[in-house]
Amino acid sequence: MNHNILIGGKWVRSSSGETFESLNPATEKPLGMFQAGTAHDVDLAVDAAQKALPSWSDFPLPGEARSCSEWLTFSGRTRSASPAL
Predict the structure, then answer these.
(1) How many CA atoms lie within 13 A of 1 on its CB side?
(2) Interacting residues of 53 by C-beta distance below 8 A, sequence separation 6+
(3) What is the rounded CA–CA span in Å between residue 23 and residue 61?
(4) pLDDT digits (tens, 9 = 90+) for 32-85
(5) DSSP state of 50
(6) CA dihedral defined by 59, 65, 69, 70, rounded to 10 degrees?
(7) Per-residue pLDDT at 76
(8) How far is Cα 27 from Cα 21, in angstroms, rounded to an integer?
(9) Which is it for strands 2-3 and 30-35: parallel, antiparallel or unpaired?
(10) CA dihedral of 5, 19, 38, 28, whole degrees rounded to 10
(11) How far apart are CA 77 and CA 50, in angstroms?
């Protein structure tokens, strides 16, 4: 499975096009291929976050939690397997 990175609300490939394989440390079996983000990708993500901040600042906290929960569900993770939100 190939995983893209989320920038500005869109799932995209790394600007370098490079990927890396991540292994489950417990089983040493592949988890999937992930995008090798670059400094340029970080700049794009920071710019997108700064543009989104005004609208997110007015978003009620329960809505933020629901959005995060929906993302965890979409990404195949569960609340118990992820850091505290």
Answers:
(1) 9
(2) none
(3) 35
(4) 999 999 999 999 999 999 998 887 777 666 666 666 767 677 666 554 554 444
(5) H
(6) -20
(7) 64
(8) 14
(9) parallel
(10) 90
(11) 26
Cα separation of 69 and 5, whole Å?
Answer: 18
**Do residues 41 and 7 make contact, with C-beta atoms less than 8 angstroms apart?**
yes
6-42 pLDDT, tens digit each: 999 899 999 999 999 999 999 999 999 999 999 999 9
- Tell me the sheet residues that pair with 22: 32
**Cβ-proximal residues to 78 (8 Å cutoff; 6+ apart), any chain:** 72
1, two tokens: 């499975």
Residue 3 · residue 34 · CB < 8 Å? yes
Residue 83 amino acid letter? P
